[in-house]
Amino acid sequence: MRFEKKDILDIKSLDTKEITMILDTAQGMKEISKRPVKKVPTLRGKTIILFFQEPSTRTKLSFEIAAKRLSADTVSIAKSSSSIVKGETLIDTAKNLEAMNPDIIVLRHSSSGAAHVISKQVKCSVINGGDGIHAHPSQALLDMMSIREKKGSLAGLNISIVGDIAHSRVARSDIIGFSKMGAKVSVCAPQTMIPNGIESLGCRVAKDMDTCVEGADVIMMLRIQKERQGNILFPSEREYASLYGLNPARVKLAQKDVILMHPGPMNRGVEISSEVADSNSSMILDQVTNGVALRMALFYIVAGGSRHADSY
Amino acid sequence: MQILIKGARVLDPGNLDDKKDILVRDRKIEAILDPSDTSNLSDSSDVQVVDASGMIVVPGLIDIHVHLREPGHEYKETIESGLKAAARGGFTAVCSMPNTDPVNDNSQVTAFIINRGKYAGGARVYPAGAVSQGSSGTSLAQIYDMQQAGIRAVTDDGLPVENSLLMRRALEYCNGLNIPIFVHAEDKNLMDGGSMNEGPHATFMGIKGIPNAAESIMVLRDIALCELTGAAVHFCHMSTAESIEAVRQAKKRGANVSCETAPHYFTLTDGAVKDYDTNFKMNPPLRSEKDRKAIIEGLMDGTIDMIASDHAPHSADEKNLEFDRAAFGIVGLETSLPLSLKLVQDGMLSMADLVDKMSKQPAKILGIDNDIKPGNPADLTIIDPQIQYAIDPSIFISKSKNTPFSGRQVQGKTFLTMVDGRIVYKKQ
Amino acid sequence: MKKKKIILNDQDFKRIITRISHEIIETHKGVQNLGLVGIQTRGDSLAKRVADQIEAIENIIIPVGSMDINMYRDDWTKISHQPTVRPSKIPFNVDNKKIILVDDVLYTGRTIRAAMDALMDFGRPSRIELAILVDRGHRELPIQADYKGIFVDTESEDMIHVHVTEHDGEDLVYKEIEK
Fold it and tell me: Is B192 a catalytic residue?
């Protein structure tokens, strides 16, 4: 199979075949990170720009390690060092980056649609590393990879997503991706954090936390993003934790072999108790490990393939 | 010099609908004649004959919601370019919004706008002044002074008057001056930094939504204040089913309210916002299909009195940005007529109803008599109702091209626009 | 039109595996410190068979690994699709071992070049040798097989197809010639 798209912008635009191909490739990549020499020469001579207009530690690190394990050269631009602070528009910045002939640009940006906007302006591949509250495809794909690794497939699974759905690009991409791959997704949060029309993405809204996690095969807890909100979404962390926090009693309502996930970074004692986060059911660190393999797969897939003769 | 408009259907709702020839002389309508009586006139060398067979002559269209941007933002539009674009769009007059820089909150700015308008060679301009000083919502602007200089309405358009007490006092004060207040109905807190309609499309795109209630809550407040004070309240750019219903009920109770909508609200929905194209971003935003239908219903049953374009020019630099950072607003002067004619083509409105909403009602609220009758200024629009074409922003006269209707197939166009007896636009 | 010509049937297959196994034992005077690494996808089946055969002869189990070399190809950006990447499995330490790479067809030599690079990333073998089922010529790199099943004369546009029971349900090698 050949991946025909130039960019990876969101989950909506990937079909199930493409998602499966990405997950299969990522699974194949995973072993490289366990070798004594954690590096293959595949992307030697390729330049990857990590353009992070919004602060990020783990996603950027994960993309950077992924690129380096494939021998690509990476250059990082952060907001403080970019011309954006000097008043340059996103499109001008993107065109300037393009002029330096990178092969791939990974963009993290606080505006929804930013990756879509620049993908139309540049010839190189664009991978959306998270745009506003719209999409975070690499996170959703590594979540799918982690679930598939434990459960074999997503089809028929009951997956609960709990937390600030309204301000979460991860939630949007997860809901679309999980339901596309055949899972039944239910979401739960105070209504202040459930966006209007979320059902149209492929999920149902549970009336409370207990209903949401009952019989779940997978529970995904989202970070309460303190930096995104004022004080009118919920009154206090204490109230939030008691209404929507994941604790051992609530885990008992789920399937025996339930797996617990969190895209990180966690607020221990708020959305997830330490007991749960550190339990055997927790896949939180596997998600991080798989993130590197998955991002290697994305680089491999968008950077490859041009001629028609296969001459080995 | 006399001009004879020949061979057209003359449609002045409530006054005239017949095949008539119109003779214009000395800036005024000289006579309305039976076509059989004008053959000798057309031979006279002193008479310029406009062959308007197949066309419709209507009282000059008036767009009561236009941002001319001058003074202050001449790179988006000037009074001259805006008034010429208006003429091309078939408008003989526009009401200009006061959110310029400086704000039109004093008679000097008003006089400047009127003076520039005189020499623009396009449509007439009737400025609206600000309700509050600097449109800052704190104290009343010198409304009487501006009225003396020529404003026909007051509004803080672009911003709501958030302080209910100030709104009450403004209504009371304006009631005495017999000048209407145009309301930009928006609850800024509920808007919460949103940039498109709240609903499944915004949720999917990850764009912060603006709920219907952000508009209707202020409509309901100002209806209450209208009924409290008895002053004339006019609601601008209505976009939601709830607002229309509120106005409908207020009218039933006899409240002194009127309202307008814009062509994009009965033409498009939030489903049309694709690929983060910022030409689909305006405030209020494109709403749901349910709202679009309610707007058409409001136009049909008379709840919505007028159609205005909310012409809001912006330069490409202000639009070629991330969706949430791009400016709100679209140009409309040169697309308003064909988009509105679609309502007639679809059988939603009669041609007379449309002319009423685009000419007679706007004239009434601005205090203008634009009946087609001898002695009145010759402000006339001649419409070619048949011509079919695609909207092409590159030939807009407006300095800005920010329209979501590029490439759209439409029917009907301005054939000729006459202001004060002079032809200010004629289709090539 | 394409013409099919059978080169090896299942009996020939068996004989070649047996012979190569004997040659390996003979060359190394036993199987001390030896490891086999098959190149995916069909080379790893062949490697397992050789190991089984050696075990039958010497009664010693020698370690077998399998390797995906797609990430080391020098032409992967030029080919029409992204080859599916599979995990490599080398369940033993290759340091100071004598490693025999096993593959089905030796053609340009580029796969073997890639395989040697890949192997180096797993450690430092004391020696690398190459066992091959079919050598079809047309080398582009200075690489030769140490253990060879059969040499087949080909034009470069000919296709050599190798079927193995584990993947294809039969042991068969045939040549496809453009007529």
Answer: no
